[in-house]
Write a structure and sequence with these properties.
Strand content: under 5%
Strand order of the largest sheet: 1-2-3
Structural class: mainly alpha
Order of helices and strands: HHHHEHEEHHHHHHHH
Helix content: 40-55%
Distance between the termini: 178 Å
Largest sheet: 3 strands, antiparallel
Length: about 300
């Protein structure tokens, strides 16, 4: 009969060899990224093509395109400024909006069926247990679910706007000009971080940077943002009806009104009433007749 111990040893030896190969593969360093093309025309065409064919909200694409805002070629920087609004969604998040995230390749839509779910890419800011099952974003095509906290953590618009704002304080004025051009379509109105960066550019930049900062402030410098628009579009409140006047009461307190109100009104009118005038003096004829009657007596 075959010896089972030797066969088991051979099997263990084979498994150990596989583990050694896996360990060697893990120890290997990742391959170096391809070198950049020295031709600026090739880089410009590549940036323009990425902006046309890539998915909106892809984190790797956002990082690659925003990095080209610092390219040494002016043509490449201009192509990157035009490609940023195509790959970065406009900044803003509301409870009922469709959200583009970096963790999934499809947009996340608000969805609630009352069933239990688990966040597929749970983060440290997960709010599933706090808010319950009613607050949920889902991709029904892939059965991919997330809560409000995880969706807000993986938002693509936050990544894109943050990368653009980093270039707004660059030492090169041309980089700042291209950054402002890329920022206008995706930035919100009335954001104090953006306004402070633009004011800084207005103080320290050259003439072209100052003009671009002024134009950006006119468009994005609304301190109230959508609040003013909501107030302007809100319907006017209905005017309140005038208060009813109290019915006048008789001086004795007996009138059409109720007893207590009538007596109070009569007493108030009596207190405010003017004192009666003294009777007029008698005419002179009566005085003469009275004097004659006194003398006869």
């Amino acid at each position: 009969p075959p010896e089972p111990i030797e066969e088991n040893c051979e099997v263990l030896a084979d498994n150990s060899d596989d583990e050694e190969e896996l360990a060697e593969q893990e120890d290997l360093e990742p391959p170096e990224p391809p070198k950049e093309d020295e031709d600026s025309g090739v880089r410009r065409a590549a940036v323009a093509a990425v902006g046309e064919v890539s998915r909106v909200g892809d984190a790797f694409v956002i990082l690659a395109v925003t990095k080209r805002l610092e390219d040494c070629s002016w043509e490449v920087r201009r192509a990157a400024a035009a490609a940023v609004p195509k790959v970065v969604p406009k900044f803003g998040f509301k409870s009922g909006d469709t959200v583009v995230i970096t963790a999934h390749h499809h947009p996340m839509v608000p969805f609630s069926d009352g069933k239990k779910f688990v966040c597929d890419d749970e983060c440290e800011k997960c709010t599933r247990q706090e808010e319950g099952l009613s607050v949920r974003w889902s991709c029904r095509e892939c059965l991919y679910d997330m809560c409000r906290g995880c969706v807000d953590f993986y938002r693509s618009d936050k990544v894109g706007l943050a990368e653009v704002l980093l270039r707004l304080v660059h030492a090169s004025e041309d980089v700042r000009l291209m950054t402002m051009k890329a920022m206008l379509p995706i930035a919100p109105e009335g954001n104090w971080v953006i306004v402070s960066r633009l004011v800084r550019c207005l103080r320290r930049g050259g003439m072209q940077v100052k003009l671009a900062s002024m134009k950006a402030l006119l468009k994005l410098g609304d301190p109230f943002g959508d609040a003013v628009k909501e107030l302007r579009n809100a319907p006017e409140p209905k005017p309140k009806p005038p208060p009813k006047e109290e019915e006048q009461e008789d001086p004795k307190g007996k009138g059409k009104g109720k007893g207590k109100k009538g007596k109070g009104a009569a007493s108030a009118k009596a207190a405010v009433a003017k004192p009666k005038a003294a009777p007029p003096p008698p005419p002179p004829k009566q005085e003469a007749e009275e004097e004659k009657s006194e003398e006869g007596e």
